[in-house]
Specification:
The protein is α+β, with helices and mostly antiparallel strands and about 300 residues long. About 40% of the residues lie in helices and about 20% in strands.
Amino acid sequence: MPAKGKHRRPKSQRFTRSIAVAGTGGAALALPLMGATGAHAATPTATVSSTQEKAATALEKAAASAPAAAKKTATKTYAVKAGDSLSKIATDQSVSGGWKKLYSDNRKAVGEDPALIHPGLKLTIGKKAASSSSAESSAKSQSSAESSKSSESSTKTTAETTAPATDTASSSGYTMPVEGATVGTAYKTAGSMWSSGYHTGVDFVVPTGTTIKSIAAGTVVSAGWGGAYGNQVVIQHADGQYSQYAHMSSLSVSAGQTVTEGQQIGLSGATGNVTGPHLHFEIRTTPDYGSDVDPVAYLRSHGVTVG
């Protein structure tokens, strides 16, 4: 029986089970090993994931800040309206660098005279200035040349305005707005072509390019496009009255500037609603249209001879 027992191979089955158990045990033992391996493998995976998270966060922040950055550097187009001046537009649109920066960015569109802007003109606001050193150098050289030219012009103008006065000046500190001009359309002339039903000022017949002077010392309250008046300047004087000069071809002053008697404020022309070159001149009790008084009587009351 024992011999037979040796041939029944019961141990084989136990061995098989043992192998299975061993296999199972091996698998069980392998699990921690695999787990450990997995844990070691998880480390770079977690690192990559963390890096990806950081990258995603950075991208999100960049995307969020992009509109703000774009807004800062974005440019826009502004259409000039009646009554606008570069100074007014620069203030209203918060242009960094003021009207000079606005003019510099739009010089090609505006032209040589920054005062000659007109309704409908398209201006670029927020344009990035040229960054090349050569461009800056060129701009500085041009600015220097213009400053020198302006200084010479100013010296010449000062010499001209301090020259002996003609019979149009007076010792009271008042003078004619133009020299040797004849009166065209008189004050209060009736007509349907004027919205008020009459002429609110007096026209001095002069060719385009004639020097226009401030009749007395004062402060410029507005200088720019005035609709039907074209390019105009309005000055407040010490007595509280305002003088207006219209249809000018170019302006030499800007709002807020103080002027003296006889100082050049621009050149005559035919801008706005006109049939020919002349200076439309008014005296007002306020800076606005509709507060006019007789300009010839006003000048004469200050000792100025009006031809």
